[in-house]
Amino acid sequence: MDTILETAKSWLTDFFDPKVKEEIQHLIDNDTEELKDRFYKNMEFGTGGMRGVMGVGTNRINKYTLGKSTQGLSNYLKKVYAGEDIKVVIAFDCRHNSDTLARTVAEVFSANGIHVYLFSELRTTPELSFAVRHLNCHAGIVLTASHNPPEYNGYKVYWTDGGQIVPPQDGEIIAEINSLGFEDINFNANESLITVIDTDVDEAFIEASVKNGNFNAAGKDDFKIVFTSLHGTSITAIPEVLKRAGYENVIIIEEQAKPDGSFPTVKSPNPEESAALSMAVKKAEEIGADMVVGTDPDSDRLGIAVRNLEGKMQIVNGNQAMVLMTKFLLEKRKEKGFKGNEFIATTIVSTPMMEVMAKAYGVEFKTALTGFKWIGKMIKDFPQSDFIGGGEESFGYMVGDFVRDKDAVTATLLACEIAAQAKANGSSFYRDLIDCYVDYGFYKEHLISLTKKGMSGAEEIKQMLKDFKENPVESVAGSKVKWIEDYNTSRAKNVLTGEEKPIDIPKSNVLIYETEDGTRIAARPSGTEPKVKFYISTNTKLDKAENFTKVSAQLDAKIKSIVSELNLG
Fold first, then answer.
1. 256 and 274 inside one domain
2. Is 146 known to be catalytic?
3. Which residue is catalytic, options 129, 146, 428, 537?
4. The domain that contains 455 carries what CATH number?
5. Are 13 and 90 in a shared domain?
């Protein structure tokens, strides 16, 4: 506690604003527990950059923590690109304070002699990724906390290739930031170096989205879409992209169309949670729509609902959407003719079905740690290869490489293309998915996500993962564990034969058990939220589409037994 108190008192100098000092003094005098939470650590970069609760303190998002990160990034850029006219582009989402924090970040960059392109109003994260290369920038920043609750905000850093920072840049940037004190931040803006941008970049991004996501599907006139931006940024792009691709029957949920960082109509603006799409699904049922699409606040994740075999709207999960999108792209590429350098990609906790499809089409399959920065890194590391598409279980997808992060704008268009064409063919999005299960095996996944907040929560997560590793599971649902993959040690061991092999992926706190029947259980802490996550994947054969409901129920029962067996319920 002495160290925490000392750190807090360092914020009482004249460098900090009077209101900041007043609040800290109040905490010192009256609220020891809150003071601890705000100062027990510094904000850290995770899988999606720096993200946390807004407020005063080293463990909060504020002008000083973002200012220090920006100062460190400025110093790093000037070292790496010494003698160059350095340029960065900054975007921000709908969250409280995103616009003012973005302005602060722009001012710090400019104070360090760096040219800044600052979007005039909120924009999507995929447009920011696109803008980095479109404007020939050295880096990009987006102020967003993605789908986190309203009290959160964040700071995602993109590098010259348009992808998020990855090793070695991330470690080097963090070291640069950590070498600074808050008093090292230069807040003295050079306004002549800040250029406000808007419609020119919008136009280029929308054109590129339509070019990459439009496959001239049949049946667009007869295809009805309900769309919700969940109070976020996608309202600035998706309606226009759909319109230009030929979709006229797009019904927007007006109650959720206005950007609002309080997200007043939803408990959580996360399309991974079915409740977030409830208003749109209800509307779709009322008007007989074919599809519902909803996006998170910064428009990198999308949730999709389509009509199931009974004709009711049903949300498809991230793995299901990814599989069908990838199958569609592979088919389209096959029609043109494969050149032999194509690949698809996903993450280690996503469905193994992606690898099965890659083998079926004869294209390379790459897998990465959780987070799209790793898929972006693949594209950068293998410039001779052609990235077709890929995604992850957490409702993110990327079509081609014109955007180097998950992109709900283009993915929304792609999903509509698949569904419209399927309907025109006398099928549906859902039936096409079932056909995939017949062709490649019926894979079904389930996620358990446990929230553990604060300093004690962080320790609890650490202990849970330690226990999961030190007390290895021997069997799952009657099937012996065959492989244990420890991404902390970069080793995979066959516990039945003793065989060991290296894991050629950066170290991470992830442990995966795989059984003889292909069931997989993965455990990892979230990189952006105070959560520990357990991913369950099961599979079996589906001999024909007519047996889908029966086999699906069997897999559900198996997942339920696994949850009970591992005490995850």
1. yes
2. yes
3. 146
4. 3.30.310
5. no
**47 pLDDT more than 60:** no
**Does 72 lie in the same domain as 8?**
no
Given 440, 460, 487, the domain boundary residue is 440
Categorize the per-residue pLDDT at 45 as very low, low, confident or very high, splitting at 50, 70 and 90.
low
DSSP of 493-554, one letter per residue?
A: EETTT--EEE--S---S-EEEEETTS-EEEEEE-SSSSEEEEEEEEEE----GGGHHHHHHH
Cα separation of 285 and 300, whole Å? 26
Mean pLDDT calculated for residue range 486-497:
95
Residues with Cβ within 8 Å of residue 554, at least 6 apart in sequence: 540
Note whether 345 and 368 are within 8 A (CB): yes
DSSP 207-222: HHHHHHH----S-GGG
Count up the domains in the chain and report the number.
4
Q: State the pLDDT at residue 244.
A: 98
Cα 5 to chain centroid, rounded:
35
Token pair 């987006």 in the structure block, residue: 142
35 and 75 in one domain?
no
179: domain CATH number is 3.40.120.10
Q: Same domain for 436 and 459?
A: no
Evaluate if residue 423 carries a pLDDT over 90.
Answer: yes
87 and 142 assigned to the same domain: yes
Residue, of 529 and 154, whose pLDDT is higher: 154
Full residue range of the structural domain in which residue 36 is found: 1-40
Same domain, 455 and 436: no
Please give the mean pLDDT across all residues of the chain. Answer: 95
pLDDT band at 46 (very low <50, low <70, confident <90, very high): low
Same domain, 306 and 364: yes
Alpha-carbon distance of 420 to 531, in angstroms, equals 37
Q: Is the pLDDT of residue 369 over 60?
A: yes
State what percent of residues in the chain have pLDDT above 70: 99
Q: In whole angstroms, give the CA distance from residue 419 to residue 173.
A: 43
pLDDT at 462: 82
